[in-house]
Amino acid sequence: MKKIILLLMVLFSSVIYAQENVKIALTPPMGWNSWNKFGCDVDENMIKEMADAMVNSGMKDAGYEYIVIDDCWQVSRDSLGNIIADTERFPSGIKALADYVHSKGLKFGIYSDAGMKTCQGRPGSRGYEYQDARTYAGWGVDYLKYDWCNHSTQNAKASYSLMKNAIVKSGRPIVFSICEWGTNKPWLWGKEAGGNLWRTTGDILNCWDCTTDWGGMGWIKILDLQNGLESYAGPGHWNDPDMLEVGNGGLNDTECIAHFSLWCMLAAPLMAGNDLRDMSESITEILTNKEVIAIDQDVLGKQGYKIRDDGDFEVWYKPMESENIAICFLNRSTNAKEINIDWNSLDIKNNYKIRDLWKKKDVGTTNEKFSGTIEPHGVILLKLTN
Ligand code: GLA
After folding, report:
1. Contacts with 16 (C-beta within 8 Å, 6 or more apart), sequence order
2. Which among 20, 108, 311, 312 counts the fewest CB atoms within 10 Å?
3. Average pLDDT score over residue span 266-293
């Protein structure tokens, strides 16, 4: 009898061990999340249509994978403490919705909060971590965004580690997205707490550089807070500068290209935040530019950083596999900017071939100076190949 118990214990712990070692998010996760565009206005039809649109628009083909419902899908708990979805908005239940998303060859994500309540006052997971993780695994959840509202005096690392353990015990590989807004510097402990990605700032807003008193900000303000965090990112654990605002109307196409390019330079998770059912051709082209996405998804997993800052003109650098390099010239000003760059001045000494990833053209080598015009609030994004 003792031997059987021992054998069972060994088997059980090896299953857990295997789960802990499942390699997920080896490149930055790509998908769509409901929050930026829809807020609390989520329901199962809209989510299904978004899954359809992800396939039909070519986004799935370009690498987008996760369909994530953010806050407001949940309303209460039953007498046993099980989390209950809004039956008016999700009459078929979350499992059926996850099945639908999976039937499209996509993955399914959901949202909860480490505190008693979510940011929109829905039930949080505090005290129900293991029960919720078991429920999510039973539904077929592949991605959990875990927020930080109403956390009272909870310790951040301990709260996130607790949910990570619950996920591991659930037996399902689930990408764990820590959404703690950078308050407790999650880049210092997020990997140890089992996070696959962690938000580094407050919420992104649908604008270039606006701010709110509750900590929301436009993408360029978020960009400024990413430089210096590059050493904390790598395969399986990424800094998350928040979801994309591409296609939400607050940025013109040039600004959308700049925002998307810089997120790719940062090896940021690429979670579209717009209505995929209703995208202009130019927005679809931006979100599905495979050569640009390849910068983000490069297997080396290095986050890019700023190597030159002339005020309105910046140069960003991202090391890539095979000693290739991505370079992004950013013009923050509202006037066009002429550039004439001597590669030596950027310490780029080898002779690389240069490709302009938005023009989709080869444009010479680093043996010659690089000249071009950057549109107001625009970028030139280059891949330098050995
Ligand atoms: C916080 C998060 C957002 C979103 C909302 C939902 O503000 O940072 O990304 O999830 O909560 O209430």
Report:
1. 168, 169
2. 311
3. 98
Question: What is the domain partition of the chain in residue ranges?
Answer: 2-296, 305-385
User: Which residue(s) pair with 277 in the sheet?
Assistant: none
Whether 147 is catalytic is: yes
Q: Which residues line ligand 1 (CB under 6 A)?
A: 35, 70-71, 118-120, 147, 179, 181, 203
Residue 382 φ then ψ, to 5°:
-125, 145
**Contact call for residues 124 and 115 (beta carbons, < 8 A):** yes
- Hey, which residues does 85 pair with through a beta bridge? 74
Tell me the CA–centroid distance for residue 119 and ligand 1, in Å: 6
The predicted pLDDT at position 73 comes to 98
Q: How far apart are the first and last CA of the chain?
A: 64
Asked about 86 being catalytic, the answer comes back as: no
Name the 3-class secondary structure at 147: strand
pLDDT tens digit sequence for 97-152: 999 999 999 999 999 999 999 999 999 999 999 999 999 999 999 999 999 999 99
Output the six-digit token pair for 363.
Answer: 């444009």
Instruction: Give the predicted TM-score (pTM) of the model.
Output: 0.95
H helices of the chain, in order, are 2-20, 35-38, 44-56, 59-62, 94-103, 129-139, 156-170, 219-224, 253-265, 281-287, 290-296
Residue with token string 């857990």: 16
Q: What are the two backbone dihedrals, phi and then psi, of residue 64, each rounded to the nearest 5 degrees?
A: -70, 140
d(CA 242, CA 177): 11
How many residues appear in the chain?
Answer: 386
User: Which alpha helices (H) appear in 208-272, and where do they start and end?
Assistant: 219-224, 253-265
The one catalytic residue in 70, 113, 142, 147 is 147
DSSP-derived 3-state class of residue 98 = helix
Which CATH number describes the domain made up of 305-385? 2.60.40.1180
Q: Residue 34 in contact with residue 68, Cβ under 8 Å?
A: yes
Distance from C-alpha of 352 to C-alpha of 350, rounded to nearest angstrom: 6
Task: Quote the pLDDT of residue 15.
Answer: 45
Contact assessment for residue 199 and residue 228, using Cβ atoms and an 8 Å cutoff: no
CATH number assigned to the domain covering 2-296: 3.20.20.70
In the predicted model, is pLDDT for residue 14 greater than 90?
A: no
